From TrEMBL:
Compartmental location: Cell membrane
Species assigned in the record: Sciurus carolinensis (Eastern gray squirrel)
Gene Ontology molecular function terms on file: G protein-coupled receptor activity; olfactory receptor activity
TM region(s), chain numbering: 67-86, 107-131, 143-162
Alphabetical UniProt keywords: Cell membrane, G-protein coupled receptor, Membrane, Olfaction, Receptor, Sensory transduction, Signal, Transducer, Transmembrane, Transmembrane helix
InterPro entries: GPCR_Rhodpsn, GPCR_Rhodpsn_7TM, Olfact_rcpt
Family: Belongs to the G-protein coupled receptor 1 family.
Membrane topology: Multi-pass membrane protein
Protein name: Olfactory receptor 10A5
A Pfam family matched in the record: 7tm_4
Keyword Membrane: yes
This protein's record includes keyword Lyase: no
Length: 178
């Protein structure tokens, strides 16, 4: 349980860091090299990973601390979610102010893969944890847990890889090979 909570917390924070990166790239493109320099990227990544470590404090006898774990998870998920929501609100506002449709398309394609990962991650977590207790069943819980812990993380590399045009071209050649 501890391992799951630490990695889940780190993923929430990493998604927030990634949305901040997209925010700077789209809303402040001229400042991007200054703001997102290699040192800052390393600091943000390290703080996201280390941010998950205090969750170990909540790991002990789970039966006694189940409510505290739920509260901690809500806080840990809520803060990055609000940061992601704020970033994408500003990103969408900036994109809509771009003068050309080509600019809209390019800007949306820049952040679409990360937005899809955010929706998969927070969407599956919301379905898992915010369902009414009356609709819980062992089979459904297992299926949702499988989706949340295995399927969603498996999609991440696929989603980000498909942004690479060389990979897409190779897949098209492989798929349409006669």
């Amino acid at each position: 349980m501890c391992f799951f909570l630490v990695l889940g917390t780190a993923e929430c924070f990493l998604l927030a860091v990634m949305s901040y990166d997209r925010y700077v790239a789209i809303c402040k493109p001229l400042h991007y090299p200054l703001v997102m320099n290699p040192k800052k990227c390393h600091q943000l990544a390290a703080s996201a990973w280390l941010g998950g470590m205090p969750v170990q404090l909540a790991c002990g006898d789970i039966s006694l601390q189940e409510m505290s774990i739920y509260v901690l998870v809500m806080l840990v998920a809520l803060v990055p979610f609000v940061m992601i929501l704020a970033s994408y609100t500003k990103i969408i506002g900036t994109i809509l102010r771009l003068p050309t449709a080509q600019g809209h398309t390019k800007a949306f394609s820049t952040c679409s893969s990360q937005l899809l990962v955010v929706v998969l991650f927070f969407g599956s977590a919301s379905i898992t944890y915010f369902r009414p207790t009356s609709s819980h069943s062992a089979g459904t819980d297992k299926l949702l847990s499988l989706f949340y812990t295995i399927v969603t993380p498996m999609f991440n590399p696929v989603i980000y890889t498909l942004r690479n045009q060389d990979v897409v071209a190779a897949l098209r050649r492989l798929w349409f090979k006669t």
